[in-house]
Amino acid sequence: MGLGALLLVYYVLPLVALLTTQSPSAIVERLGDPEVRWAAFVSLGSAGVTTLVSAVFGVPLAYVLARRDDWWTAPVTALVVLPLVFPPVVSGMLLVSVFGPSSGVGGLFAEIGLPLTRSFVAVVLAQTFVASPFLVIAAKSAFEGIPQRYEQASRLLGTGRWRTLRRVTLPLAGPGVVAGLLLTFARSMGEFGATLIVAYYPRTLPVQIWVAFSSLGLDSAFPIAAVLALLSIVVLVILNRLGSTFWR
User: How far is it, in rounded angstroms, from Cα 125 to Cα 147?
Assistant: First the structure.
């Protein structure tokens, strides 16, 4: 208990330092900056879309990985975790090589007016690559914690596979899935390296913080960092409460 409390203090102290060293007037002033407001909008919007995309594609993948015991499940799980190993800048470089305008895929989408770099779509692509593994791994662990006999009993009672998944499996795995969603959203809000490489524009809050720091120094960057921290805390608390209520 004491060791855990020390770790918690270690988490909290930098946040307290960030928020207490910035006057409310400085934060409000930064929120009045159109560039900061737009960056906040892009961050919230892209993190929300990334979380939704990760849920749509990641939860089914997590369920398959949890319920299958074939030769390919271990390599696929390793591939899911691999983006967590790459430095974010490397992830951005890899994404540009696949989705950049000089690549086949990127060039094709650019021709139809949907560029996959320097666009909102590019921000979502970068965030999904680095953040969705958190959802897949958390949901996989949640599904693995559910005894298969519950699903088998439901099927024996005549319930179809999809209804069993919806009425039995997902409610039991709900807390783990919600935890994965929160981690994905939080990681998306803080994503910097891959986003910087793939989509310098539109700027997210982390990119805006870097621009302020590189051009004007710490005093300019810290208030924007406080804005990012406050927005993230508020949204995560709301999502956690909504998620807990939904799965009850």
Answer: 35
